[in-house]
Amino acid sequence: MNSPRMSDLVTATNVAKKFGDHTVLQDISFTVPNGTVTVILGPSGSGKTTLLRGLNALELFDSGQVQIGSVEVDFDTITPNRRGRLPSADQRLIQRYRAQSGMVFQGHNLFPHRTALQNVMEGPVVVQHRPENEARADAMSLLEQVGLAAHADKYPYQLSGGQQQRVGIARALALRPELVLFDEPTSALDPELVGDVLAVIRDLASEGRTMVIVTHEIKFAQQVADQVLFIDGGLVVERGAPQDVIAHPSHERTQAFLKRILEPI
Question: N or C: which end of the chain has fewer CB within 10 A?
Answer without folding.
Answer: C
